[in-house]
Every structure is written in structure tokens, then in C-alpha cells.
């Protein structure tokens, strides 16, 4: 079985975000880049299937050279090989453009299952993985919090508002991961894993290798773009309520009822 | 290419609240364009309800009412939506940024070759085109997005609980058209089952969230927050440490990796306020922080702060809320 994990790199979630000089992207100096947490769950889910069923796990990424570190980190966790599409011509792509690059790369890599996070916690676009499934014309099972395989079918459960849904699909299929760290608890790389990862194959491709013409991707093909970033309006400094316990409780209820009108 | 079209979300015999929110937002955008507002409604047993979207200013509803559309399955819903949208040809398409709404929006955008902004919190029309504001980095900052010239439809999904709901005229009904569309014959994936969840109020849709963190000390202590949440008609959330400790289900996690929520009232109990948690709840309308550490970063986001042991304070607070409820009848 061939499992491909789509992996993106994002600023660590403890990063304080500042707007860059162009006003439409973030300042990237002194950022610690990590694997998008939901993609890290995807790596873990793929490795669990590899452990239980046997599989080759390939990491596929689109992005600059700094991605190599994250791909190696996933290889150290236990993935088998990496493919990085690094081409300046892909810069400025919207979600659909990025999905086109990934789908084109996937057409050259045998795949039974494709895993990725349901969103990346930087742009929060919530769409690239799903679009890849559409472009490859395969089912997408989204927001998975459990993944099982039986009789050649992949089965997931996903929480939606007020309900839990179980979906099932034959392969090939694309699964986007939901849930939280507490569910997936991605494994740490072992020291031998880190040593081995250095020797695992990592192929770097250009758009031309994917038979993708530049006009299908990049800024020129984008249908939507970010025109500016704005920091949230800072909150007015709050009121600290004083007094003894009973007085504080009474005052908080009064404020919420009379001033805020929320209870 | 004209008008605004919303994709309403209908489940278990009723429209989800977010459908009225996107209808209301759609009305505002359609008015700004001076063009009509239409809606697409797919579901099972939805015929009797469909025309009520007229109360929110929808002129016309494209309705398909079939048992196969009872629960959302991308492989059935997306081709049907795409076919209707190709014939309606709206400039703007609004959908719900719910679990299913985000799923169908992305797949639909890829199918139509359209630009999509997910989880929008503000929309406006500028020079006849849509502009959308949406949180990025879970709300640490916001992106304003624009569509390139002549790129239609301009698709946006709207975060639940954010867009104002405006009932225009309770006596109005929309005209209903039933397009002749054949559902896809071959579908690979299938819905095995749908189970209603035990909690009554979903975190993403809750008006009030009472959240607990490391300071709760023990999973049993969350009963206190459950009681308060129930009293306020809200839901219980949790910080990542509380979920990582196994005290609360993962679905309750609020933060950059977890749910990003925008309730009217967020009460943070024993949560210090890690930056990734603050991002996930920072755009709540009112924030109350209860923490015994006066230096806790959560206080920087709070409208009202109480420095006290939560095990002392919350029972007293519950008592006062009960008094208020009794007084208000």
C-alpha cells in the first residue's frame, strides 16, 4: 500500500504574529518553522497504518528549501521518502493553484491513500487537501478523528456540529485529519530514526517535471488573493473586579447583565 | 453573471441557524450590488421549509428534495450544486463555514475553478466586487481577500455566529423552483452512520462558552463548569493542557489547534492564556477571566477579570446567576 502525506510548514503556534513590510504577509524573521500540527497527525496516522498493514509512506510538500528540514523530521518519524516541489513559479498561487501542483505531482506517484491536515494553522485556508481530491477525482473523507481499514475499505469518523458521522470509501481516497494532539499523539523521532532519515531519498522537483504549465499556477493564475493583513482591534483594558468572593460574584453578574447584556 | 446565491444548510428537518445568517448577509450584499438574492437548498423533507428563506430576503429558492440528500456526502451534493450554479451563474456564492459547509465549498470551488475564502467574518462589496475578511493564524491577524478581475463566482463561506441575522418580513415567502437534475449514478464513498452527539449545544455555535484549563486540577471538577454552562445555556470548552491531560474530549479544545470560537460570552476558568489559546477565543464578544494568578496573560484579553481561586468563586457566581434568573423569572 502506498500512502502519501501532504505536508506543510507553519510558524510554531506560540509565535507572535507581526505584519510584514508589504502589509499583506507576515514578518518571517525569527520564526521557528514546524510541521503543521494537523499534517503531523497525518504523518502519525499514516505510520500507524504502515505499522498495522504494511505500507510505504511518502511525504510530499510544496515550498521553499526550508521545507527539507520538516520533510526530514517526518522521515525520522518513520516515513520512507520525500518529494519536494520547489519552484519560484509556484509562488503566489491561491489554494487551487497549490492543489494543482500537488495533484500533478501525485499523478506521478503511485498512491492508495493520501493524508493531510484539514487545515494549516497559518493561512487557515481549509481547502487545499479537499481540492486535491477533487482534481484527482477521488473521494475525500474529511476531519477524521479515527481511521480504520478493513476489507480494502478505509473508514473514518468525523465530528460535525451536533453529530458524529462515519464515512467509508474504497481506495484511492484522500483523508484530511481533524482532532487534536491528544488523539493522535504523534510519535517522536528516535535517534536511530534521525540518523536513518538523513539517508532516505528526497527528490526535488520543478513544475516542468510535473508537466504543469506555469499559467495554471502562481500569482497569474490566482482567482483570489490576500490584499492586506490587519491586526485585530486591541481590546480595551478590562475591569478587574475587587471585593470579597460574594461581592465579586454579585458584581460580575451585575456587569454581565446590566453593562454587557449577555446574561 | 448576476446576483448572490447562498447554499443553505438543512439537517434533521430544519435549517441550521447559520443558513439564516448567510441569507441575511447575502441580502446585504445583493442590495449593495442591486441584484437578486437566490438560495440553493438540498435535503430530504425540506420542501415545506424552503420558501421560509423569503423571510430573510431570498427571492428564489432552487430546491432538490430527495432521500439521498438527507445527509451530506460530497460525491452527491457537490455535482448537484455545481450544476445548479452553472445555470444560475451568480457573481457571489455564500456558504456556511460549518464542517460540511467548508467541505463542500472547497470541492465546489475546485470544480468550478473559482476563488474561495473560507470562514469569513466580514464581507463587503467594493466597486461591484466582493471583499472578504477572514482570520488567519487562528485570529492572531486577519486577511482581507479580493478576487481577481472578472473571476466568478466569488465564493465565501461564513463563520457561524458572526454575521447578523435579519428577519425582514415574517410573512414573505420565496418562490421555489425545482431544477431537473439527476443525482450521480456512481458514488464511491458512503455514509455508514450518523449519530447525534450527546451535548446539546455545539461549541462552534454556542453563544456562551465556559472553558476550563489546567487550573481545574481534576476532570471531576468540570462538573462545576457544566453546571454554569447549563445555567447560561452554553457549552463547555477546554484549553489544550486540559485536553492533553485527558480531562476533556478533544472536540472541546479551543485554540489554534482546535476550535476557533466567537461566542457572545467566553468565561475562562483556570486558563493562563497561552498565545495559541488566546488566538482561538480572542474575538469573543465578552471575555471573563477567572484565575488566581493576577499575572496570567488571559487577563490581557478579559473585559472582566476576577483574581481568585475558581473553586471558591464559581459556586458563588453560580449562586448569583441563579438569583438573577429567579428575579427575571
From TrEMBL, chain A:
It comes from Candidatus Portnoybacteria bacterium CG_4_10_14_0_2_um_filter_44_20. Residues 23-214 form the Electron transfer flavoprotein alpha/beta-subunit N-terminal domain. It comes from the Bacteria. One of its GO terms (molecular function) is electron transfer activity. Transmembrane segments: none annotated. SMART domains: ETF. This is Electron transfer flavoprotein subunit beta.
From TrEMBL, chain B:
Binds 1 FAD per dimer. The keyword Electron transport applies. It comes from the Bacteria. GO terms for biological process: fatty acid beta-oxidation using acyl-CoA dehydrogenase. Transmembrane segments: none annotated. The keyword Electron transport applies. Its cofactor is FAD. Residues 4-195 form the Electron transfer flavoprotein alpha/beta-subunit N-terminal domain. Keywords: Electron transport, FAD, Flavoprotein, Transport. FAD binds at residues 214, 239-240, 253-257, 270-277, 291. GO terms for molecular function: electron transfer activity; flavin adenine dinucleotide binding. Belongs to the ETF alpha-subunit/FixB family. This is Electron transfer flavoprotein subunit alpha. It comes from Candidatus Portnoybacteria bacterium CG_4_10_14_0_2_um_filter_44_20. The lineage of its organism: Bacteria, Candidatus Portnoyibacteriota.
Amino acid at each position: 500500500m502506498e500512502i502519501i502525506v501532504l505536508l506543510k510548514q507553519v510558524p510554531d503556534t506560540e509565535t507572535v504574529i507581526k505584519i510584514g513590510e508589504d502589509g499583506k504577509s507576515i514578518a518571517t524573521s525569527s520564526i521557528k518553522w514546524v510541521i503543521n500540527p494537523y499534517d503531523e497527525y497525518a504523518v502519525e496516522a499514516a505510520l500507524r497504518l504502515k505499522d498495522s498493514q504494511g505500507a510505504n509512506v511518502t511525504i510530499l510538500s510544496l515550498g521553499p528549501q526550508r521545507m527539507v528540514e520538516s520533510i526530514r523530521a517526518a522521515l525520522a518519524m518513520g516515513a520512507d521518502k520525500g518529494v519536494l516541489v520547489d519552484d519560484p513559479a509556484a509562488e503566489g498561487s491561491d489554494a487551487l493553484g497549490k492543489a494543482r501542483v500537488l495533484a500533478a505531482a501525485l499523478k506521478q506517484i503511485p498512491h492508495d491513500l493520501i493524508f493531510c491536515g484539514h487545515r494549516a494553522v497559518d493561512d487557515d485556508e481549509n481547502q487545499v487537501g479537499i481540492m486535491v481530491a477533487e482534481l484527482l477525482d477521488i473521494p475525500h473523507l474529511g476531519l477524521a478523528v479515527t481511521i480504520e481499514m478493513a476489507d480494502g475499505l478505509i473508514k473514518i469518523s468525523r465530528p460535525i456540529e451536533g453529530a458524529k458521522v462515519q464515512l467509508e470509501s474504497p481506495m484511492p481516497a484522500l483523508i484530511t485529519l481533524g482532532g487534536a494532539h491528544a488523539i493522535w499523539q504523534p510519535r517522536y523521532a528516535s535517534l536511530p530514526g534521525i540518523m536513518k532519515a538523513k539517508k532516505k531519498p528526497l527528490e526535488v522537483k520543478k513544475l516542468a517535471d510535473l508537466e504543469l504549465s506555469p499559467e495554471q499556477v502562481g500569482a497569474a493564475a490566482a482567482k483570489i488573493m490576500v490584499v492586506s493583513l490587519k491586526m485585530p482591534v486591541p481590546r480595551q483594558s478590562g475591569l478587574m473586579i475587587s471585593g470579597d468572593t460574594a461581592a465579586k460574584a454579585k458584581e460580575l453578574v451585575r456587569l454581565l447583565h446590566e453593562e454587557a447584556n449577555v446574561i | 453573471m448576476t446576483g448572490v446565491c447562498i447554499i443553505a444548510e438543512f439537517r434533521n428537518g430544519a435549517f441550521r441557524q447559520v443558513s439564516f445568517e448567510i441569507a441575511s448577509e447575502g441580502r446585504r450584499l445583493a442590495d449593495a450590488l442591486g441584484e437578486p438574492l437566490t438560495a440553493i437548498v438540498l435535503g430530504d423533507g425540506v420542501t415545506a421549509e424552503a420558501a421560509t428563506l423569503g423571510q430573510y430576503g431570498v427571492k428564489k429558492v432552487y430546491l432538490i428534495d430527495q432521500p439521498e440528500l438527507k445527509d451530506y456526502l460530497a460525491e452527491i451534493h457537490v455535482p448537484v450544486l455545481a450544476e445548479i450554479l452553472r445555470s444560475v451563474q451568480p457573481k457571489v456564492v455564500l456558504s456556511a463555514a460549518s464542517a460540511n459547509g467548508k467541505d463542500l465549498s472547497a470541492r465546489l470551488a475546485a470544480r468550478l475553478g473559482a476563488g474561495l475564502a473560507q470562514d469569513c467574518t466580514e464581507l463587503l462589496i467594493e466597486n461591484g466586487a466582493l471583499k472578504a475578511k477572514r482570520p488567519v493564524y487562528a485570529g492572531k491577524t486577519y486577511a482581507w481577500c479580493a478576487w481577481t478581475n472578472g473571476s466568478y463566482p466569488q465564493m465565501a463561506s461564513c463563520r457561524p455566529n458572526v454575521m447578523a441575522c435579519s428577519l425582514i418580513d415574517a410573512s414573505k415567502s420565496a418562490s421555489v423552483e425545482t431544477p431537473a437534475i439527476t443525482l450521480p449514478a456512481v458514488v464511491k464513498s458512503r455514509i455508514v452512520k450518523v449519530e447525534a452527539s450527546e451535548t446539546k449545544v455545539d461549541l462552534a455555535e454556542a453563544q456562551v462558552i465556559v472553558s476550563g484549563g489546567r487550573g481545574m486540577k481534576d476532570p471531576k471538577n468540570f462538573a462545576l463548569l457544566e453546571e454554569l454552562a447549563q445555567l447560561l445555556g452554553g457549552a463547555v470548552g477546554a484549553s489544550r493542557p486540559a485536553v492533553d491531560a485527558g480531562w476533556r474530549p478533544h472536540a472541546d479544545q479551543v485554540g489554534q489547534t482546535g476550535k476557533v470560537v466567537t461566542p457572545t460570552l467566553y468565561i475562562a476558568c483556570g486558563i493562563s492564556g497561552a498565545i495559541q489559546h488566546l488566538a482561538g477565543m480572542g474575538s469573543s464578544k465578552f471575555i471573563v477571566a477567572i484565575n488566581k494568578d493576577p499575572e496570567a496573560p488571559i487577563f490581557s484579553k478579559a473585559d472582566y477579570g476576577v483574581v481568585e481561586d475558581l473553586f471558591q468563586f464559581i459556586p458563588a457566581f453560580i449562586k448569583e446567576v441563579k438569583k438573577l434568573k429567579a428575579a427575571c423569572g
